[in-house]
Amino acid sequence: LALSDDGRHLCGYGNATGLLILDTESGEQRTLWPSDSARVSCLRFSRDGRELIAAMADGLVRGWSTGTGEATFVLPTGDARVISLAVSNDGRSLATVADKGLVKLWQREE
By C-alpha distance, which of 45, 60, 48, 61 is closest to 10? Predict the structure, then answer.
């Protein structure tokens, strides 16, 4: 479960529904990632709330636009499973933690 810093978006993952994002002002909700894909282990919003970033149990980190629901990036970490992630204030740097405790730092390409 993740809430954006501005409180406008709430996101959660359900086994039956996949990744859902809710606009807390309008009540609109949409599925960003289907339930038959890898499990989500960690969710974070960018500081400005325009992007949702998820660490996946298959070792990928994925991003989506909160405005359009479109995928913004996919980062193959090379790890079997990512259990946690952090996002810098500008959204360009990420840190991931693998299930074996390995921490990696990433710079996103523009």
Answer: 45
pTM: 0.84
Q: What is the pLDDT of residues 29-51, one digit of tens each?
A: 887 776 566 788 889 999 998 89
Structure tokens at 97: 């933690």
Closest CA relative to residue 63, chosen from 44, 81, 84: 44
Q: Tokens at residue 83, please?
A: 């259990």
Q: 93-98 and 103-107: which strand pairing? A: antiparallel
Burial class (CB in 10 A: 0-12, 13-18, 19+), 103: exposed
pLDDT at 17: 65
Nearest to 108 by CA among 90, 93, 87: 93
